[in-house]
Amino acid sequence: MSQLDDQAFIHIAKYFQALAEPMRLKILNGLRDGEKNVTELVEISGGTQANVSKHLNILKSSRLIKRESRGTKAYYSISDQRIYELCNLVCGQIASQMSIDAAANEAFISTLQVTQ
Amino acid sequence: MSQLDDQAFIHIAKYFQALAEPMRLKILNGLRDGEKNVTELVEISGGTQANVSKHLNILKSSRLIKRESRGTKAYYSISDQRIYELCNLVCGQIASQMSIDAAANEAFISTLQVTQ
DNA sequence: ATATTACATGAGTATATAGTTATATAGAAA
DNA sequence: TTTCTATATAACTATATACTCATGTAATAT
After folding, report:
1. Cα atoms found within 13 Å of the Cα of residue B98, Cβ hemisphere only
2. DSSP secondary structure code for residue B31 in this structure
């Protein structure tokens, strides 16, 4: 396995890592319908301002979201809508893994707001 | 945001977490062309036996891989081929994020073996 | 029965990460 | 300038995670 491959795996792993946190998924979900400022995201997510701010920074570092400063506010938005495809795939797999009947399965999927 | 939604986000985050480790991606990549036993995966990944064994357990707990014991050997295989779709999506996004020219971009993508 | 091979796991360490609290900074308004 | 609002960040704590080394266990071979 080459050094270059190792770097690729590290790169991909970091990307998944950015998505591997409930609060960050919640934030991304909150951005589904367009940009929001930090205060709005704090309300939506139910987290503290400091914590949300840190998560936003992590998401931005991973290029999942963009930041635009207007006045005293900072507006964040999704960089690439394809992340929702990722979430859809994962939701589909998780749902199909659940050993519950089809109706309950359907109910579970409908609770997943991380979709387009 | 309801309690149920919170559970969903936790669930999805755990799934991504399982994919957020270079060694585990390497192992999954090693399983692309079918089942392999632990010793084979140790060789492919370049990790220690103990460490690979632990990662295999994590991947199994996350239902990404299955285990079948035959004789003294344990054969692992991919549970759901759709994980490669995930990796493809991520690779595509990472590649398109890279601020390098198209040729280098292509070269990078070709090094990513986490594809079907 | 003993040895060997293949794998899993416990103990311990080091590092990373998420969270809180308090504080810093920056723009807008008074 | 001072104040207020919005956001970022530093310091700290708690927890999780990856890794190594040593050991346990289970199937096979001698």
Report:
1. 19
2. T
Q: How far is B74 from chain A (nearest CA, A)?
A: 22
B33 vs B115: CA distance, rounded Å: 11
What does the block give as tokens for B78? 């991919």
CA B74 to C1' D21, in angstroms, rounded, equals 23
Contact list in A for residue B45 (CB cut-off 8 A) is: 1
Domains of chain B: 3-79 (1.10.10.10), 81-116 (no CATH)
Count A/B contacts: CB-CB distance under 8 Å.
123
Phi and psi for B32 in degrees, rounded to 5?
-50, -45
CB B69 within 8 A of CB B80: no
**What pLDDT is attached to residue B82?**
87
Q: Residue A31: helix, strand or coil by DSSP?
A: coil
Nucleotide nearest to A73 (CA to C1'): D6
Q: Which residues are CB-neighbours of B57 under 8 A, at least 6 positions away?
A: none
Share the mean pLDDT of chain A.
Answer: 85
Nearest beta carbon to residue A12 from set B46, B80, B87: B87
Amino acid residing at B1: M
Is the per-residue pLDDT at B105 higher than 60?
no
pTM equals: 0.85
Q: How far is the CA of A73 from the C1' of C26 (A)?
A: 10
Give the pLDDT confidence score for residue B100 in this predicted structure.
44
3-state secondary structure of A106: helix
